[in-house]
Amino acid sequence: MSLEEVRARIKTRVWKAVAQSKLDVSALDQATMESLIDLVADAAMAEADQQISKSVALSTTAATDDEALLDDNKEDILWEGRPFLSLVLHYTITDERIRITEGFLGKARENVELIRIQDIDYKQSLSERMLKLGDINIRSHDPSNPAIQLKNIKDPDAVYEILRRAVLAARKRHNFTYREEM
User: Fold this and answer.
1) Where do the domains of the chain lie?
2) What phi, psi does 122 have (nearest 5°)?
3) Is this model's pTM higher than 0.85 or not?
4) Which fold has domain 61-173?
5) What are the backbone angles phi and psi of residue 81, rounded to the nearest 5°?
6) How confident is the model at residue 49 (pLDDT cuts 50, 70, 90)?
7) Which long-range contacts (CB under 8 A, 24 or more apart) does 12-15 make?
């Protein structure tokens, strides 16, 4: 189920709850009522996501000093997170690769080496901008999965920057250059 579908279902429940509660909302115009319902739906989605984060015990952590982390020889975690309202998907960005773990009881892992990444970008819909979410699209030379999308990431601009800097540092560390043909 997509975020828009979840949001629509929450809004429907809120409208039903207002109708069943027999509250007198006649003093509110339709636009104000719509805005109120939208705020309640967004707050409900944010609270549900926060509770999922606590129950799964996965928190988003960003590296504060990227350059210091990239200097040593061990693999350091630069960012960890999961899609908004997801229990089964987890993303980890290290200074060597992107690791995507999927599954609740059983696990499937996909790894993409940073030096194989060709291009990174991100996009946000209007509702995602309101919730500070977005999708990060990655194109790589990885034979198993050349196009990856990190879906519904919190603060996609910051994660994009972490990933971009990590890719550049990995290329520099491995003396890798990428040449485009015109």
Assistant:
1) 3-56, 61-173
2) -140, 155
3) no
4) PH-domain like (2.30.29)
5) -175, -175
6) confident
7) 14/40, 14/41, 14/44
